[in-house]
Amino acid sequence: MEKFYITTAIDYVNAKPHVGHAYEKVIADIIARWHRLKGEKVFYLTGTDENAQKNSQAAKEAGIPTRKFVDKNVGFFKDLCKILNISNDYFIRTTEDRHIKVSQNIFKRLLDKGDIYKGFYEGLYCEGCEGYLTEKDLVDGKCPEHQKPLKPLREEAYFFKLSKYKDHVMKLLESPNFILPKEKRNEMLSRIKSDDLKDLCVSRKNLDWGIDIPGDKNTKIYVWLDAILNYVSALDYPDGNNFKKFWPADVHFIGKGINWFHSIIFPAILISAGIEPPKTILVHGYLTVNGQKISKSLGNTIDPVESVNKYGADTVRYLFAREIPMGEDGDFSEQALKDRLNNELANDLGNLLSRVVTLVEKSFSGQIPAGKADTQIQKSLNLKKIESYMERFELHNALAEIWGFIRACNRYINEKEPWKQKGEELGNTLYNLLEALRIITILIGPFIPDTADKINKQLGTKAGMLKDCKFKPFNGRPKKGEHLFTKVK
Ligand SMILES: [Zn+2]
Q1: 57 belongs to a structural domain
Q2: Does 296 qualify as catalytic in the annotation?
Q3: Domain count of the fold of the chain
Q4: For residue 424, what is the enclosing H or E element?
Q5: How far from 175 is each of 60, 188, 257, 393, 405, CA to CA, in Å?
Q6: What's the CA-to-centroid distance between 132 and ligand 1, angstroms?
Q7: What is the Cα–Cα distance from 142 to 149, expressed in whole angstroms?
Q8: What does the alpha-carbon distance between residue 349 and residue 44 come to, in Å, rounded to a whole number?
């Protein structure tokens, strides 16, 4: 059996989750569910980055001990997973013992090997990034990501010999699937070619929060280094069964702002530690709200929980997957949610189910006779195309193709006019529509799992696998239920 290991980035818990967090978790969830549909053994990991200085600062501002503050805020991220129907197999917290042990273990290995050494660091530090920036990273003397001036710092520190691994990493980047989509790979390739990869500072002094460096209690492991190691610590590196079964990761799904750290630094650390690098770093863009960048100061942060309460988890999931091409920035707006809900979910899909089930109940009291497969309707399903879009992580295209089939089914009803048909002819039409609906339910399952469950219930069918997406004798017992979606104004 094939395995598939997918992760999201882990989130800072200095504030409640916003719509960007929701987006990342949902898209990774759809990919994970798709691979389960293929019969693969899947491990989907998400979690929280708790050792960051940001968390400890936010706790101080709130007047709460950091540990307590972090424990409380993690709850919001776990609740978000629940409310969005995220099927993660584990939720890693970087304050867990197992994570601390693995981080220290790997740090020590690199230290013993001489790939981490002691020196002095002098540089410009961005508190937002929790990292040093070089002159060429700056825009108008500020961090472009955080729009904040930088603090000059000089301190004794540990360094990782990043320069030593430049060739190794270059070679990885040359393989076409290491970073996807390819625009994001090209960005990293051109940057690494012009960069001599200075050794990386991997420690911080005088912090009261974070993971101690083994044998040096006054210094903490740089939070970025411990954070990326969550992907192996969650599998109980080095001896855990999950590590043996699932590593290397098949997909690390991340935002574009942390591509460099995942695509360049992470593999270098892994290679140094003797761990195989991941297969693919999949990079997404940022969300805007009504065309504007999301920011606290603009007051346009959207609480994803509110959107779910108002429109339902599946509508939000559908919008994320349908509206935003992989790798591109995308917009999240209430209008788009309403339009997709009314037109595609309620009109196209909801109506199809309700028309078919109503006809079956009326004509055959729910007992549908064995029918003949109709090539017309079968031909409008292009499964190969859907699968290949999913393999390339073009979720919006896969969904458009699935919806093409849903619309073809609606057209089929209009053409056949089953309300005028009788007997065997009517039986055939309804059989084909029921089988089409059963197949649609399998295909939409990863995207809108609640809706798929509801349709199965009305059809009297069980959730299928991808291999079941072909016309077979229909085995359900349809019974009309509530409308799948309620339109909104
Ligand atoms: Zn910054």
Answers
A1: no
A2: yes
A3: 1
A4: helix 423-444
A5: 45, 13, 21, 17, 35
A6: 9
A7: 5
A8: 29
Q: Is 262 a catalytic residue?
A: no
Task: Please state whether the predicted TM-score (pTM) of the whole model is above 0.85.
Answer: yes
Residue range(s) defining the domain that contains residue 378: 334-468
Please report whether residue 407 resides in a domain.
Answer: yes
**E strand or H helix at 85, and its extent?**
none
- The owner of tokens 């890693």 is 92
* Residue 409 bears catalytic tag: no
Relative to beta strand 212-213, strand 200-201 is unpaired
Closest to 368 (Cα-Cα) out of 444, 459, 441: 459
Q: Catalytic site residue 293?
A: yes
361: Cα within 13 Å, side-chain hemisphere? 13
pLDDT, one tens digit per residue, over 116-137 is 999 998 889 888 887 788 887 8
CATH number at residue 371: 1.10.730.10
Is residue 352 domain-resident? yes
Which of 136, 296, 384, 489 is catalytic? The answer is 296
Q: Which residues contact 108 (CB under 8 A, 6 or more apart)?
A: 214, 215
Q: What is the pLDDT of residues 126-183, one digit of tens each?
A: 888 877 888 878 888 888 888 888 889 888 999 999 999 999 999 999 999 999 999 9
